[in-house]
Amino acid sequence: MSSVQRLGLDALWIKEALEAVEGLLLKAPETLPEGAIDAVLSDSRRAGPGTLFVALPGERFDGHDFVADVARRGATAALVARPVDADIAQFVVADTVEAYGAIAARYRRELGARIVAVAGSNGKTTTTQMVAAIMRAAHGDRTASTAGNFNNHVGVPQTLLSFPRGTEYAVVEAGMNHPGELARLADWIRPDTVLLTNAQREHQEFLAGVRETAWENGLAVAALPDSGFAVYPSDDASCDVWASIARARGVRALTFATDPAVKADARMTLDERGDAVLRFSDRTPGGAACLVFPFGMAGEHNRHNAAGAALAARTLGLPDSAIVEALTNFRALRGRGAAIRTEDGSDITIYDEAYNANPDSMKAAMRILVEDPSPAKVFLMGDMGEVGKDGPACHAEVGAYARELGLTLWTCGELSQYAAEACGERARRFATVAELLEHLTELPASKAAFTVKASHSMGFDRVVARLLELHARRDDAPRNPTNEN
Q: Is residue 257 part of a domain?
């Protein structure tokens, strides 16, 4: 992680950090360093006086290899799993990841902010930023949120430690791809409200189906206080999983939906003019209400995200005026559905979905493209990662869906060939991203819409960048502060 987690006006003393990791501490220096810690970080390049460096293990790097470097940079102390030959105070713990989380959890308790945790398969980052926008509309700089998609065992502690003292409302994104991960993150976050977006086919290489995915995400509810709220979609096939977890925990459950056929405490639909109609039931904090406002994001899944964000905001007592203001002005982020329109007279729209993909989010993105009024439409699809043994079938399913919708499909990658085969004569196949880039000039030159979607590992942000080079652009889509993909 590259950012420094400043702890605000009142610094964290070394003894407080030691208290936080007491159960993990194996050895402390004979003499404790003097002074306070005003940053906790895992990026050695950002180390300096007043910082506590956490030596985290990783797939590409081991933080222990950089302890000597942070010592030269003047860091106050290092949290390590084994002693390192370096001139710096070292606290040896059984597990640096757990210790990092423990320090963040202590800081969160002292902070006292009311926190929403957002978990689920798809839409987490967009929904998190919607909640953050509502919080800002209501309480300005007394709010905080996850930057980028720092939602794992490193990102969540970083996020919590980044919240300034005086923060009153915050929203934290929590993600997982293995069993047990979400429960640990939620235990660090200790949210007042858990917002579950959906359960879909993500990380199926590591999880045994959608029901297990729903269960693992739903375990965040166990970290709620007795006064907490579990917020989840009643039009999701796994809603019974979350309802059972909420009942077992004894917290209040509230539901949201877009499907008019199911019962929900918050529902967003569109009226005949295309404005959003957001209805709350009398079970929600604040009581029954109907809000009507312009909503600038296409797609039912985005209305679904907005309904969940609004309902979570109500559990914190945030006013409806803030909900309307924030959702009226909200725009999709780059890499996550941003609609970028050219200004060279070509009348081209590029839907940037290059950050992530699974079968269900692919289909949702295709439905948005179908709704676009442009006469020419092309869906540029790359491989979906972590789909496990069902990879060929999942890609074929998406290709068949494109054929059903009548879309032209350009595919790229080894697995996406199955999508091209299932789509049939309206598909065109490319082996590599480099090959695809060479042929982008063959796309319609005007009055067209293109969707670019793949898992992040495919590097489809290069496809978006090349399309923008080919057309003068009005690239005013918002970016998450530390996520430009």
A: yes
